[in-house]
Amino acid sequence: KAGVTQTPRYLIKTRGQQVTLSCSPISGHRSVSWYQQTPGQGLQFLFEYFSETQRNKGNFPGRFSGRQFSNSRSEMNVSTLELGDSALYLCASSSGLVYEQYFGPGTRLTVT
Amino acid sequence: GQQVMQIPQYQHVQEGEDFTTYCNSSTTLSNIQWYKQRPGGHPVFLIQLVKSGEVKKQKRLTFQFGEAKKNSSLHITATQTTDVGTYFCVESNQFYFGTGTSLTVIP
């Protein structure tokens, strides 16, 4: 089985712009979660989608949004980028809540 | 949501020494999962514990789930440089990974 893929792998944006990141889960996995990882804050949960519905949400502002398509692929959007949004964004897929998560390689976002 | 707290945040050990990281919760956990993230990599699932008092081993790694299901530990015997990385514990339906424990192994 192919693993979780994320595109793009690297991205440089300017403050105020918006960005869309993509995640393709492992085939058959219906749950996709998104995380932000920074050196100081660790791995922080953004949201989780299951069957095209946002099922769980972390404590991030409304500038961070996501969606999931019928084929379970997911996108994450960040609007009005701030310098503090520079981070590694990881997505993970799972068969469901009680199962392990499989992480993708991440998208490294740099905001200048 | 419920958060599992992990200690220590950082640990430096000489190669060959043992290492332990602990996870604690104020409430009963349904399960606990452990992940390892190598420097520059992404978290990789290691194991899941579900039963009270459960102990599982993977070569030099020993995972324990407390009798009250409120704490868990990961113990590495005779660390090697390949053990370097950050270890996270998380309850499967809570998504809270936190900062984990960063392990440095000094050759």
Strand order of the largest sheet of chain B: 1-3-8-7-6
What percent strand of chain A? over 45%
Indicate the multimeric state.
heterodimer
Task: State the end-to-end CA separation of chain A.
Answer: 37 Å
> If you average the pLDDT of chain B, what whole number results?
95
Number of helices of chain B: 0
Structural class of the secondary elements of chain B? mainly beta
Q: Please state the overall shape of chain B, judged from the principal axes of the Cα atoms.
A: globular
Helix content of chain A: under 10%
Count every helix of chain A, treating DSSP H or I runs of 4 or more residues as helices.
Answer: 0
| C-alpha end-to-end distance of chain B | 40 Å
Outline the structure in words:
The complex is a heterodimer of chains A (112) and B (107). Chain A is globular and about 35 Å long. By secondary structure, chain A is mostly beta strands. Helix content of chain A is 0%, strand content 54%. In chain A, strands 2, 4, 5, 6, 9, 10 and 11 form a seven-stranded mixed beta sheet that branches. A four-stranded antiparallel beta sheet of chain A has the order 1-3-8-7, with no helix packed on it. Chain B has no helices and ten strands. In chain B, the strands form two sheets. In chain B, strands 1-3-8-7-6 form a five-stranded antiparallel beta sheet, with no helix packed on it. Chain B has a five-stranded mixed beta sheet with strand order 2-10-9-4-5, with no helix packed on it. Chain B is globular and about 40 Å long. The mean pLDDT of chain B is 95. Chain A binds chain B through residues 33, 35, 41-45, 48, 56, 58, 90, 92, 97-106, and chain B through 1, 30-31, 33, 35, 42-45, 48, 88, 92-93, 95-100.
